[in-house]
């Protein structure tokens, strides 16, 4: 048995991940391994609804999310925290089901929690203990042997930039250091997916940049990230997939780059025949304006782009230029929030 | 003669990003998480890995509860050749439950183990691990009960070993007191579990340690006074009253008497009450169940 425990002393000394996903799955209990789908989607949500007395927090949400860094975006009260509680198995869905890494949360919440790391938004650390103690204890609570937990706590605190402060009580930490400690405790159990609830809340610009840099690096470590925030700039900076929810309903879900490119304003230069194009587009339900001899049309996804192409072709207009103006995720959210998909 | 220069490679400094390496060792689930929480709670209660001030209360109390045993053994040693009968200031039975010190200990330590988790919002982090509400309650109650057991049992060990060593024949003393070897642990377990469940249940109702501590002491004092009023003018040897069962502080001591004597003590306010032993046991179990119910209710939200 001893050799098994010694395997846990590996620490984090290498510069890059050496363990493949299949090996990581092998380290999980047998009950988990049988349901592991390393190549499958990270999250599969089907008809998920959560009602509390007088309020529907999540309303018929259906999603399938790939592995990677995912931004969960919505205004305050949009249902982000409820989603996290449902993912952790701490709340039961009224209807529908959720699979995390191929495991049904309702059926086996313990196995799901063994694969997740969670960084809450609010203060949640024992202030009279040192960062090393807290992270090490949470490592043990994640199922790691004591010695491995201590080793990993040390290495993870080093990773998040708290190597010199690890033996100081958390009560004396700045907000940025506390956020890093919260991230460290979420990572110490080597999760497949880490849930970050507003990780940049309360940070100054420098601290925010450093936290986003850390979050951005998690993807390269083979850890998927689901980051809930209402700061769309943060998502745009680090996430490669975005899920927008509003009032518990899905607004839009897609690749960050794809949403930015396919949603927004497209400029068409048709050689001065602006009025004909605007009328043609209006007839097909697309808003367009004349601007300095070109047409700026507001499009919403691939279908609208197809309509643009068809209208130009039907009117037999020359197309000298077609370019899309990159929008921000804020614009995407504001535009799409009124028409849930 | 030119100075010896270090090799070029040694002069170069480099900062390495040590990166991240996934963990591929063994991993436990609920049992491991519960045991980890149990250990962490014991460390917290004893002030281990915390500032020295946190260590003062538990270890001073341990010293206080051990003093009678040391004094008893010391006097026994000094008077071993002068007295015909062995001098005893404390018996094994009476030594189970040094109530004032233990009461203080329960009032100080139990809130410290329970309240900060709720006050500092640590619970969501814990329940994001492979842990459920029942595991949490078991770990917390077991940790407090373990410390109470240790702090009640260690002085008994000092007393037993000391008495054995100062006796005329150590082996004779040992064989003559074999019953002590099961009676003391059994009585101490009864005591430790009782105080741990009550202390944890009360502490779970508030997030402020001072309120929890005061409530624990208040409950013990209030039930003691109420019981005394109900039992009324009672003197040794006369019939007591079932109202003595209300005394939550003394309840495990009545059970201790049953363990040591096989019946309710003649000096007890329960003496003469029909089925006294069974009534004590039933009340004891009812209190444990009540405490467990409070704890289950307070931590069931994590499973909804």
Quick structural gist:
The complex is a heterodimer of chains A (341) and B (304). Chain A is an alpha/beta fold and 341 residues long.
Can you lay out the helices and strands and say which pair or pack?
The complex is a heterodimer of chains A (341) and B (304).
Chain A lengths: L1 H6 L13 H6 L3 H4 L9 E10 L2 E11 L3 E5 L6 H8 L7 E6 L2 E2 L4 H7 E4 L11 H11 L4 H14 L15 H13 L5 E5 L7 H14 L5 E6 L2 H7 L2 E6 L2 E7 H7 E7 L4 H10 L4 E4 L2 E7 L1 H13 L6 E5 L3 H9 L4
Helix pairs in contact in A: 6-7, 6-8, 7-8
Chain B lengths: L7 H4 L18 H17 L5 H27 L13 H4 L3 H21 L3 H4 L6 H34 L3 H7 L3 H24 L5 H23 L19 H11 L14 H24 L5
Helix pairs in contact in B: 2-5, 2-7, 3-5, 3-7, 5-7, 5-9, 5-10, 7-8, 7-9, 7-12, 9-10, 9-11, 9-12, 11-12
Word description of this protein:
The complex is a heterodimer of chains A (about 350) and B (about 300). Chain A is of the alpha/beta class and about 350 residues long. In chain A, about 40% of the residues lie in helices and about 25% in strands. The radius of gyration of chain A is 24 Å and the shape is elongated. With about 300 residues, chain B is an all-alpha fold. Helices cover about 65% and strands about 0% of the residues of chain B. At the A-B interface, α1, α2, α5, β6 and α6 of A face α2 and α6 of B.
